[in-house]
Every structure is written in C-alpha cells, then in structure tokens.
Design brief:
Length: about 375
Amino acid sequence: MAELTWVAGFRTGVVSPFEPFQLAPSRAFADETLRQVLHLAGGGAAVRVTLTNQYGRRPLRLGGARIAVRTRGSGIDPATDRALVFPETVVPPGETTTSDPVDLAVTAGTDLVLSLYLPRDTGPVTYSHQPAQTAYVTSGDRCAEPRFEAAGELGSRYLVAGVDVLAPAGTPVSVAFGDSWFEGRGTTPNTNSRLPDLLTARLTRGWFVNQGIGTNRLLTDVIGDHALARFDRDVLAVPGARHVLLHLGLNDLGVPGRFGTGAPPSADDLVAGFTELARRGRAAGLTVVAATLGPYAGTTYPGYDTPRGQAIRREANAWLRTEFGPHADFDAVADPADPSRLRPEYDSGDHIHLNDTGTRALAESIDLTPFTR
C-alpha cells in the first residue's frame, strides 16, 4: 500500500480587512452561518481545514464547523456531511488553526462546502477579496442544513487559508503565486476558469494551488503583504510544494499612479525582487518559473498605464526571458498589432484582466514541462 502524506489540495491568498485600499470590503459576522465553496485542485483519502484570523483584531469564536461535498448552490450531500473539530474554539488575532483529520475521500475537482457558525461579533475578518466564487450567509446556526432556504450571497471568501488532503507521498504540488491573473479577476464566477484551475486540468500528475491576490505587489504592500514578505507563508510552508509559478510586477508599475502612492520601482528593483524569490525557492528545493509581466496598455484604471511603466515592463520582461531561467511568456495573449495590449477577444473589458477565453488560451500556451519533473 502506498505511503500517504498531507499535501495542499486547496489554497487561497488572504488579506487584511483594514487595508487602506480595498477592491472589495470585508465584513463582520454575528450569530450567522457562513457557507463557502472550496474547489479542490487535488484529492485524497481524508481532509483537514485551516482557518485564519491572521489579520483580525478580535478573537475568532467558532460555534460550529462542518464540511461536506456540494450538490449545487448552497446545497450539500448529507451522506458526506462531517463535523470539523479544531484544537481550540477561540482563535486569537494573528493566529491560524487546523482541524483534526476528517475521513472523507475526495477527488480533484470536488467542490467542498465549509459551513462555519460564528456566534459572536467577529469584527471585520481576514479574507480573500475576489476569488470568483459565491459564498452564502444566513442567520443562526445552520451548519447541518442540507440547503440554505434564505441566504445572502457574498463575492469574497472569509477566514479560510486552505484544505489539505491525504495523498500518496511524492504527489507534486505547484503554487501559482502572484496577483489577480491567478486569483481570477475577469473570469466568470463559479465556473473555475481561473488560470491555476486550467493549468491543473492539463497535468496528468499533481496540481496547482492558487495563492493569487488581486493588486498584490512584488516589492511593497498595498493589498496583501507584498510577495517578498508572504513568500515563506504562501509558498514555502505549503505542504507538498515542489514548484512555483510567479506572476508579479504589474501592480508595482501601475498602482503608484492609480492610488497616488509615489513612483514605480525601476526594472533593476524588479529584477532584484525576482532574484530573491528565485534564490529562496531554489534553496528550498523548488523549481521556480517566472511569468513575464502581462500586457495592460490602455487599461481603464486611471493613472495605471504610463509610458514609464511600459518601458520598465519591457526591460523587466527582456531580463525574465533571457536571464531568469524557466519562464512562461504571458505575451502569448498580447495583441499582435500592439504587444503592449491584450488581444481584444481575450479582454474582460478593463484591458488588463483576461476573460474566460483569454485565460484558456494562456493556459494552453504555457509549457508545463518544468512542473512535471
């Protein structure tokens, strides 16, 4: 019988509800049940769930927690419904907690439903702001109900850090570490059309977990800890991680003009950041693949697209293509008539994020050989 070990089957990049800039606000919960769909990249013989109060300012009190396989909408299959037991029912600010293992066999592509009853006012909670997945909330303790008859719908994901699965030893996990191009902005919600999902579908062994955060930067904080600060937590600490795909830098170039926070970094600054991530990843035994900075000219976000930013993008991409090592060229979705812009048929409408067709084309263009070694 093959040896089994815990590896990441699902991940989600989280941010603080108290960021000075927010794409979608977090919220508080009180005497409510929160039901969230977690689309598994990989499966195994058992599962365990990690909750996070990383950026909360109040103790997080858990009144109940259950996991089940989804049927549709907020519905669950009662035959798969299991109680989750955590080491503590109160999670202090800045802490995480992982449940005891649950005997529930799951496969890649399974939609798990996590139900949390939150009895007391949580204050604004740690969250993933734009995961392209609907969550559900209703009053009272409804964790065990097969379906929420009356529920509000939410566009963010709250209090979850990840799900681990008990899988054969040596199962390779690849981490998609970066910004909204991974988190899924621009794709159709509830269709699992995010780039890491589509890359997973192409693999015959292993899978990608998603640590993308929209508007995240390589070098400095703005939404979420910057990549250099969160790399250890969101990549190196991921159980089973063997490879990492990076897409970072666009927000370093565009956010300063959009939010009025100063000048963008130089190409040398970006190169230094990528070099440091590569050093740390390779020292830990990971294969590190960098994506070139995707095209974004003409984006609808005021102040984001500047001549200086475009010049830095070209210089950084030239270095990534020739000096970094294994790389994925995101110019595969550029307009041949103007490589600084997205192809019109791939554009979600804001001229920086891909629609479902564009994400599929990008996924097909990426050489997955480095992720199969």
